[in-house]
Known about the structure:
By secondary structure, this protein is of the alpha+beta class. The chain has helices at 2-22, 46-51, 80-86, and strands spanning 33-37, 58-59, 62-63, 72-77, 99-110, 115-124, 129-138, 144-157, 164-173.
Amino acid sequence: MKKIFMKLVILCVIxxxxxxxxxxxxxxxxAAYYLCYDSASEWIKDDFLNEHKVKxxxxxxxxxxxxxxxxxxxxxxxxxxxxxxxxKKDAPKVDFDEKMVLLHIESTAYAxxxxxxxxxxxxxxxxxxxxxxxxxxxxxxxxxxxxxxxxHIIIADKVEAAKALxxxxxGVYREPWWPQ
Length: 180
């Protein structure tokens, strides 16, 4: 009886271990991110930066207070010509046959160099909206001050059906999940 019980326990463990590898596949396209950069404004061309200032953020000591400005901008870049119109030559190289670039610009009260952002969810909705959640992890004590623009650049697997980008950025967590 003890041997039968042990065989049953071993069988249950094997089945429980195998289930996660067999479920979760779906018809919707999801992307896995390849790289994520924060505060990469040095790679973005000046004319693009000037056209996409974030409302309330400070640029060269002056607040962008124009009511016509948006509080955030999000872009999906799927081809080299669009990429070249936004980014300088020293920006990371991207293979647009397999990858796409997600650019999200918003303001933050934290010094951008004080945190690391980690994309935590990619989801394509039936209407073509591509949803991305970004979690921020505090890397060093952040001084809270005037709002600053922050640029999240994510290089992800290409999803042809993605038409618009919705990004949700979640608070600054003090305990990062990766070793320091």
